[in-house]
Amino acid sequence: MFLMHALENGSFRGSLMGISIGTVTKAGTVTATQKIWRNLQALGDIAFAYSYSIILIEIQDTIKSPPAETKTMRKATLLSIVVTTVFYMLCGCMGYAAFGDDAPGNLLTGFGFFNPYWLLDIANLAIVVHLVGAYQVFCQPLFAFVEKWSVKRWPKSELITHEYEARIPCTGATYKLNLFRLVWRTAFVVLTTVISMLMPFFNDVVGILGAFGFWPLTVYFPVEMYIAQKKIRPWSSRWIGLQLLSFTCLVVSLAAACGSMAGVVLDLKSYRPFQSTY
């Protein structure tokens, strides 16, 4: 779709240096300072795309062996990184080539045309399926932690510990229903949905989440685990290299956080609750 739009234009839009200074957007005219903030925010957006490492341990814990979990996870991680990188590079490059400096943060809703509508519907449906599955995977560790803590904290509470059995019609199977689990998980989903609706700055919020989650969970924690497991001596060449890698990613995360926060401050000038900014 983006390739067709680029062909309609007769050429690829945009430039290798990104958005031009002086471009008029809905938030105002882009200045040199705002371009720097935008570039830093983009680093946070990229970091958010690789924040999957926070659930790697949970996934590895459920993998059967043999073969060894490390071999399976190594193949799965490599394949995931390759597919994710190719997909996001295609979306970013083709979207920018099609719309240039006017490229919106949300390519499916902010580009100004809605044909062919069936293709957009399929794309949005695919996003829903992707996010519903990802939401479940990312939330399960939190659900399990809160529910285990609640059982230990109030072991005699029937609301928390008692499970009701409900028969599923036509199957003969039974479903165990826990009222606390039902209420707590429902409230969590409602709360997170309302918060996401109150924060329509998609790119800014993604950049902030990516900046704060990338270094500690994707870089620092795995690096320190690797150093401890391999018993790497302090101040050896490998130890120094790993520490430099960790420090560089920390600087990138801090810069991305600053850029994303600056974007939020700028977007707040035209902010209206429960309304999208595109």
From TrEMBL:
Keyword rRNA-binding applies: no
Key words of the record: Amino-acid transport, Membrane, Transmembrane, Transmembrane helix, Transport
Residue ranges annotated for the Amino acid transporter transmembrane domain, each copy included: 22-265
Top-level taxon: Eukaryota
Gene Ontology terms describing biological process: amino acid transport
Subcellular location(s) of the protein: Membrane
Transport keyword on record: yes
Pfam families with a match to the protein in the record: Aa_trans
Cellular component per GO, a single term: membrane
Regions that span the bilayer: 78-99, 119-146, 182-202, 208-227, 239-266
The protein, known as: Amino acid transporter transmembrane domain-containing protein
Organism field: Ensete ventricosum (Abyssinian banana)
